[in-house]
Amino acid sequence: MEYTVGQYLATRLAQLGLNHVFAVAGDYNLTLLDEMAKVEDLEQVYCCNELNCGFAGEGYARSRVMGAAVVTFSVGAFSAFNAVGGAFAENLPLLLVSGAPNNNDYGSGHILHHTMGYSDYRYQLEMAKQITCEAVSIAHAHEAPCLIDHAIRSALRNRKPAYIEISCNIANQPCTEPGPISSITNSLISDDESLKAAAQACLEALENAKNPVMIIGGKIRSAGCVISKKITQLGKQLGCPVATMAQAKGLFPEEEPEYVGTYWGEISSAGVEELVRNSDCRIYIGAVFNDYSTVGWECQLLDDHDIWISTHHTRIGKKEFSGVYLKDFIPVLTPLVKKNSAYLEQFRAKNHAAKTVTVAEGQAPLTTVELCRQIQGMITGDTTLYLETGDSWFHGMHFKLPNGARVESEMQWGHIGWSVPSMFGYAVSEPDRRNIIMVGDGSFQLTAQEVCQMIRRNLPVIIILINNAGYTIEVKIHDGPYNRIKNWDYAGLIDVFNAEDGKGLGIKAKNGAELEKAVQTALAHKDGPTLIEVEIDAQDCSPDLVVWGKKVAKANGRAPRKG
Ligand code: DPX
Ligand code: MG
Fold first, then answer.
1. What pLDDT was estimated at residue 336?
2. How far is the CA of 272 from the centre of ligand 1 (A)?
3. Distance between first and last Cα of the chain
């Protein structure tokens, strides 16, 4: 078979194990989509707009080795860039592919549609370079295989998005056939000497430690679930307490005896802040310190006794080891470490019992406490729970996850509206999991239309829409009239999206009894999504959000730096 540029690209994605690519059509990418469609193993999944398309690719990358989105030039790509920024911030390999002008037009002085209105079209490539780890322009077929491989390899190595633009008259031109995919996937190999030296330094640090504690951060999400299993083995081998940072909720199996809860400064699980503060050796794995994760810079504990293992380098005390990749380092370290459960036993002896939640009276107005009690009942080992930016983050930390349950959030980028399109992409990859979204009314208004794609593909996603009449998290950080929003009939929207053939359900719940019924209906409904709109008082929010909001507001409001 003779390959074309579009087929080469699609074959590479299929070789990587992708079965789907997300797309929005436009005249710069139509030929490309035709060519990509000839590769049978890669189905095209269409989205309502390019922002959502990018997020769908990002969600797919949370389940597979990579996600990909194909858009048209400028009008499409500019919208997708926001999702690309998100994938960069969240360390997810998303490949953005944009159709581009006919290669005869470059340097011709022609002014083209969908461009900025002047004849130099390189601005899009220049913009993409700022928000990806690799951005390439393909204007000649013979260069395509090499450039495509290069961009994909960079994305996988760096766990960051990459960008490829392809001239619209090049996508169907012949090129060489792709070789083994291992040339791309096997390109991240640690330096042996550094691995050994880092393991040795780590053992010495642990040897001197009485109270080690392991703290897992969000960066390990991007390293995939294989690494999550290896980290679990390390935690068990060490036998020390293991906490997860908020971004990493669910990345260590919570039923394991080593698991102690969430580490999030003042709003940590009971006893965990003290446990981390008093440790003489904190083993951070994939941790991210930002203003949110440190509660306004109040809990950034890192000193010379600590061990900092990140995806691409390791720092132990005052020594730096580059070329030591997490995926290689953890298996080298695990069999060498000695068990030290003393600190865990001390913690357990303090008996930090979880609060019991009483069942609300069935007809009483719904509260967030009752809502969360009922959501907890929905979480099984095959559940993936998406927590949208907002009060959902704070409630989400309190769920007890059975092993196998997963939580996804976007705490570094924090784009409201992310959850619906990202979950769409995720559910395309994982249709058999129990996929649940907790999303606020304000967030939902940004990307609501992508629910229609869940309907189109009969995906049984359960959307818990918290209608609290506005931007509650912002109210707690800094209030004003801008935090009020126009109300919608959110449940009623589903009928609009169903049109003549859809099977989505929209249900409203004002009290516990109504919610219980709605949850039963949603769990039984397998032909499409169910949106449950829950009415919550505007003042009812997580106490953790109030504490955190004040601290973040204080950090935002620091006086200007002098001099
Ligand atoms: C904004 C945020 O209703 O959730 O629980 O009521 O806060 P809560 P909602 O979804 O409101 C979200 C709102 C407006 N953040 O409280 S978190 C600012 C913001 C952002 N992303 C984008 N625009 C504005 N995070 C794209
Ligand atoms: Mg709200």
1. 96
2. 28
3. 67
Given a contact cutoff of 8 angstroms between Cβ atoms, the answer to whether 309 and 329 are in contact is: yes
pLDDT of residue 224: 61
Cα separation of 410 and 414, whole Å?
5
Strand-pair partners of 214: 242, 283
Low-confidence ranges of the chain (pLDDT < 50): none
- Residue 134: beta bridge partners? 162
How many CA atoms within 13 Å lie on the side-chain side of 266?
Answer: 15
Question: Which residues have a beta carbon within 5 Å of ligand 2, which is an ion?
Answer: 440-442, 468, 472
pLDDT tens column, 426-454: 999 999 999 999 999 999 999 999 999 99
> 283 and 306 in contact (C-beta within 8 Å)?
yes
Q: Extract the tokens encoding 523.
A: 């769990």
- Measured from the Cα of 473, ligand 1's closest atom is 7
Sheet (strand 259-263) strand order: 259-263, 242-245, 212-216, 281-285, 307-309, 313-316, 319-322
**DSSP β-bridge partners for residue 382:** none
Q: Which two tokens stand for residue 174?
A: 């012949």
| Ligand 1 atom nearest to CA at 443 | 10
